[in-house]
Structures are given as C-alpha cells and as structure tokens.
Amino acid sequence: MAQSGGGGGGGQIAAKRGKLSSSDADAGADGEDRLSALPDEVLVLILLRLRTTTEAARTSVLARRWRRVWLLLPELRFHLAPDGHRIRKVLLAPNAPPPLHRISVVTEDSAPDSLGAWLPDAARRLSGALVYHRIVPGVEDLASPMPDEAGEGGAIQLPCFEKATRIEINLGLLGLDLPLAGTFAQLTELSLYRVHLRGPIELGDFVSSPRSPRLQKLRIRDARGVDKLTIHSESLLEVDLRRLKGFQRLSISASALNELNLLKCFGKNQPVAFICAPQLESLAWTDSYDPSSVDLGNLGQLQVLRTNGFFVFSKPDCRYNRDFLRLLQQFRFIRSLGILVFYQRDIGNFPYLMEDITMLPLTEFLTVEVVNNGHNFGPSSFHILRLCTGIRRLSMKLHIIRGLKSACHPGCICDQPANWKAQELSLNRLRKVELAGLEGTEHEVVFLEQLFSWATVLKKMEITFDYSVSKSKGRSRCSCLPRKTKKTRSE
C-alpha cells in the first residue's frame, strides 16, 4: 500500500510517479510544481548535496523558481575550476546574500592573475572557511620533494580576510604575498602548504596577536621564503612546521601554546631557536638540535615528546644520533615518549651504536617506530626496553619500504650483540602492548617470544600484520603466544 504524503493527494502522486512524462518531471498530478513550492531553506539543503556550485547552478534550467535558489547557497565549492574569473562572477552575482560560510576551490590553473582574481571578492563575503588548493601534476602529495623552480611562476596577493575563521592554502609551488595591512580578527586556523612566501611582510608579524588575535592553529609545510619566524601570540595553541627550505631561526613566545611540531626545517643549518611556552604539553622535535643555540625554556608541563631518528648501525660521528642524544639529555621524565630507530639497507660493517644511548627519560607510555629494512630489530629493541623498565604501555610500529627487497642475509651483523636473548629483563609494570606492521618473519616471532618472557604481568597484546600477510600466516605466527593476551588482525 502506498503511503500518503503530507497534504492532500500525496498518495496519488507516489502511485503515479513512474508514469510521469519528461515535461511533467517537476509537476504533480494536478499540474502543480510541488518541488518548487518548497521553502528556500529546503531547496538550499537539496542543492548542498550536490558536489559543486557549478552543478547547483545548472538546476536553474529546471524552472523559473530555481534560477535564484543556487545564489542563496551558504557554501561555494568549485572542483577543477577552469578560470578564476568565472569564480569572481559567481561571487559578484546580483542579489546574492553577502555571508558565505565556506569557499572551497580546487584548480589546475597556473596563471597568477587568474588564480587571485576572485580572492578580494571572497574576502568581502566570507565569514567562515577558505580552502584553496592548486593541483600540480606529480606533486599533489605533500610528502613529495619541492622542486627548485618553486615560486618562479609569479605570486598571488592574499587580501585581508577580516571575518574568515579558517584559511587553508596550497599553491602548488606559486608565490604568495601576505597583506600589507589589516587584521584577521576572526581567524582561528591557518594552514599554508607549498607556498613561496614573498614580499616585505614577515610571516611572524602576520600570525602574531596584533594581526591575528584569535589564531589557535598554525601549520606551515613544504614552504620557501621563511628563513626566520618570530611569533608573539597570546592565543596560539598549536604550531606545526615541516620542511621549510632555508629555515634558520625560530622564536616563539606563546603563553597558551600546547603543542609544537618541528620536522626537517633546519636541514644542515645550525639550529637557532628560542621557545617560551610554559603551557607546552606536546613537543615533536624531529630536527637538528644543539643545546648551545636552542633554548626550549621552561617545559615543566611537557607530557609528550617525539624525537629525531637514531641510526642503529652507522658511522660513529652520525649527526642524527648526536642530535638525538643531546635532546633526550634535557629531560628526566616524560609521560609519553616516542622514538624512531632506523636501519640502513646496507649496514655493511658499520659499528653497532645503540650502546651510545646510556639513558632515556623515565616514561610510562613508550612508542617505538622501527624502519628495519628486513633486519633483526630485536637487539636494538631490547636495549631500549632495558632503559625503560617502568613502562605501562608499549606501542611498536614496523615501517616497510615498498619496492625494496629485504637487505638482511645469512650472517648479517644485524643480530649483534647475539646475547640479547639470554639477558634478563623485567618489565613488571607493562600491561598493554600494541605491535603494528608485522610481516610474520622469524625475527618478529623471536622478539614476540622474548617480550612475553619479559612482561610477566601483561594483560593485553594487539598485533596488526601488514596487508600483504594472509590471515592464516598471521595466525600461524602467533600460535606460540598465550591466547588470553593477544588479538591479531591484518591492516
């Protein structure tokens, strides 16, 4: 039985819907256009379900009633917009309401005058989020290297967005000029990816409290033109800086800052940094570190620390290892500690360097990421664990480099020192273990067996195999472990 809709005749319309002709597509049985009779608010909700604003504008051909509805949209979304001037026409359309909650543009355009043509009009109408991505074939992934020709294609002038709350810009190697004047009074989140900052305005002045008084999250990644960054902010909660080419100096004074992430910014430059963040709880410093030129200030509130990588086998004067040791020496207790150990594919006859780590901060939650390239990670893991016997939770992640065959071979020195399996170790507070990225190798099985013998009060172990490992192989590899403590799955 067909259900009747609200209002008379709803049941008849439902019963006859399959027989409607194309000319009656939006009309009821009595000839009335019932869809167009819906309130504007309802029609706008319908159009918001379409993927782009261009698709929404095409509904204007349905009926005269629809010609103005798409202009009421609180969001504008353009995917692979062919020309920035067309976006400007939409923003300047007559009778369009001024406030926009979101503008999202993805384009392959390469002409700066076209790319930036619509930004001043967007600044006048936007009271929410701006998301602007320029796609460059081959460099869509933020982790890919930044070509040397970055910024040579011209620059885009960023106007002052007085009412924008969030701005995310990825210019795909083009230059960006920051506004000379104006206050981003409502801005709480700023993300700049793959930009070449140019012009007389310093990024630090732009993101500090006088011009961005409400800014809480700042993310700058894969950028050029930032050789120094000086921030004075009373509102910033999170700063994330990654791969800033040519970066030389960092100075942050932020009374409310809670999280700071610094990844591969200084490169081979001498790191110079001054941090005043008394409320900082989470620090990821995976970069060069020298206590003679880096002042982290008072970090009495710090709870989470992530460090640079440590090479298990390498030359004795390895710079990465030196920075790793220098940083960890600054801390006596860290509630949650994350470290990375790295095995080169060809370790040859390099010396075993784990013995250089003589102490680690006292910690409760330990995260160890291992890039082992097929080598036996048991000896290095044992060395870390014997320096962290008070941990309550252990999380280990094995990283696989795709497309490379295992570099380990019979007689490889990665199993040294060989007596690690015979040494005593008591992890009598360890109750939970998470292991991810396993491939089911013999090295992994041996380590699991040893871990069970060390963790006498272990309550739960979660094992996640790499997607290349079948479920049957995973179960077989774990068959030797006590079932009451383990849980296995494939990624």
UniProtKB/TrEMBL annotation:
Q: What is this protein called?
A: F-box domain-containing protein
Q: Where is the composition biased (Gly residues)?
A: 1-12
Q: Which InterPro entries match?
A: F-box-like_dom_sf (IPR036047), FBL15-like (IPR055312)
Q: Where is this region: Disordered?
A: 1-32
